Structure formats: C-alpha cells, structure tokens
Amino acid sequence: MTAKSLIHKTALVDSKAELDPSVEVGPYTLIGPEVKIQAGTVIAGHVTIQGKTEIGKNNQIGAYCTIGLPAQDKACRNDPGRVVIGDHNDIREYVSIHRGTTKEQLLTQLGSGNQIFVYSHFAHDTELGDNCMLANNTTLGGHVKFGSNIVTGGLSAYHQFTRVGSFAMVGGMTAIYQDVPPYMLCSGGRGVAYGINRVGLQRNGFSSAQVAQIQGIYNQFFASGLVPSKALAAVKSDSDGSMIYQRFIDFIEGSKRGIVAKG
C-alpha cells in the first residue's frame, strides 16, 4: 500500500505538513502546514489539526477531534503556541486540545499511553502525564496539570490552574477547585478527598505494605485534625525518604490553590 493511498481523497493535507508515510488520514480531515505526525498514527474522518502540532507514534485519533486550535482566551487567541502529543494514545471522538499561550510556556502537552474519551477538553497550557484514563466530558480549564496514572469520571471539571497528582481518581460529575494530591480518591459536587485510591493503587502494582503506607499518609494529612502546614510537617517527620512519601510532599509544597478538604 502506498503512502498516498493511506490518505483519503477528500482529506485536505497541506503540502508543508510532515506526515510519516505510514500515517492514515480519514475522509474530510484537515491538516495544516505546521503539523508533524509520526509513524503508525491513525486519524479518523472529519478531524481538524492545525497550528504547531506534533503527534507521536501509534496514536488513534477519533472522528471530529480538533487539535491545535487557538486558546479560548481573548488575550491569547493569536499566540503561536504548540501542542505536543506522545505515543500510543487513544483519543476518542470530539476531543478538543487547544494550543499553549504566552501566559505560560506556549505549550499544551499530553504524554503517552492515555485513553481520552468522547468530548473531553484540554484548554490552553494544560498538561497530562502518561497512562491516564479520562472518561467522557472530562474538562480541563487553562493551565491545569495532571500527573500520570490518573482516572477521571465522566463530566468531571477542573478549575484553571488546579493540579491532580499521580495515581489519583476523581469521581464523575465532580468539580475540582483545589489541588488533588497523589493517591487520593476525590468526589462530590465540590470535590473533597474521601480516602485513598486503593483499587487503583493495587492495579498499578503497589504492594500491600505500600498501600498501608499511603493510608498512613492520608490519615496523617487529612484525618489528624491538624491545619495543612502542621499536617505536612507531621508527614515529613514520618517520611522514610521513599518516592511514595516524596511524591506526596513535593505535590503539597508545590500547591498554589490549596488542597481539597477531607470528605
């Protein structure tokens, strides 16, 4: 099969776009001149990819996705930002991914191995790590940062500049206004922490001892009755220097919007 035959005759691919010969492009898809797409990626019909967008290897991009369009921000709609997407992502129908702006690093970035379901939205300057599963209509406001191995429920929404730590889970129809630390299970109309993401941790290979250690961190930080600064000091005092502790401590210390409350 020739490279030409992998691009549907109704697709509009700019002659300056850089597509590996193995990239498949479906009908009525529009790809702009600054787009770069690596080997094995399959793009369905009616997709729009514009701007300085770089897409890695072996991604599946569903119908009606829009990638690399300007930010929905009046001050930055003409900024020459980028979108960078890693490898082996499954991006389903109607997902929108807007490019970065001068308010940050001119970059919206998605990692590898993610499952991103229908109608999810990534506003300008958002970041997503690796191996996350985002259910339908997961909505990230501008500058939202996700770690890796995160699961979200459908219709969950994330206020601008909030963060979600690695191995956390956020329930469906949850509104996140403050940061969700690593390992936590968060839900509610206004998201609060109800405990640790025990099943998710087990599925990601954490041992029983490590899960118990994380439960201890939750108890110390959320259930001790201490104010956040003193609760963090207590967690630091108990820390054994492992990555489990350090990931949590670094996340809390990096918070600018504050941490979700205990449910």
Automatic annotation (TrEMBL):
<dbReference type="Pfam" id="PF13720">
    <property type="entry name" value="Acetyltransf_11"/>
</dbReference>
<feature type="domain" description="UDP N-acetylglucosamine O-acyltransferase C-terminal">
    <location>
        <begin position="179"/>
        <end position="260"/>
    </location>
</feature>
<keyword id="KW-0443">Lipid metabolism</keyword>
<dbReference type="InterPro" id="IPR029098">
    <property type="entry name" value="Acetyltransf_C"/>
</dbReference>
<dbReference type="Pfam" id="PF00132">
    <property type="entry name" value="Hexapep"/>
</dbReference>
<dbReference type="InterPro" id="IPR010137">
    <property type="entry name" value="Lipid_A_LpxA"/>
</dbReference>
<keyword id="KW-0444">Lipid biosynthesis</keyword>
<dbReference type="GO" id="GO:0016020">
    <property type="term" value="C:membrane"/>
</dbReference>
<protein>
    <submittedName>
        <fullName>Acyl-[acyl-carrier-protein]--UDP-N-acetylglucosamine O-acyltransferase</fullName>
    </submittedName>
</protein>
<dbReference type="GO" id="GO:0008780">
    <property type="term" value="F:acyl-[acyl-carrier-protein]-UDP-N-acetylglucosamine O-acyltransferase activity"/>
</dbReference>
<dbReference type="InterPro" id="IPR037157">
    <property type="entry name" value="Acetyltransf_C_sf"/>
</dbReference>
<dbReference type="InterPro" id="IPR011004">
    <property type="entry name" value="Trimer_LpxA-like_sf"/>
</dbReference>
<dbReference type="GO" id="GO:0009245">
    <property type="term" value="P:lipid A biosynthetic process"/>
</dbReference>
<keyword id="KW-0012">Acyltransferase</keyword>
<keyword id="KW-0441">Lipid A biosynthesis</keyword>
<dbReference type="InterPro" id="IPR001451">
    <property type="entry name" value="Hexapep"/>
</dbReference>
<keyword id="KW-0808">Transferase</keyword>
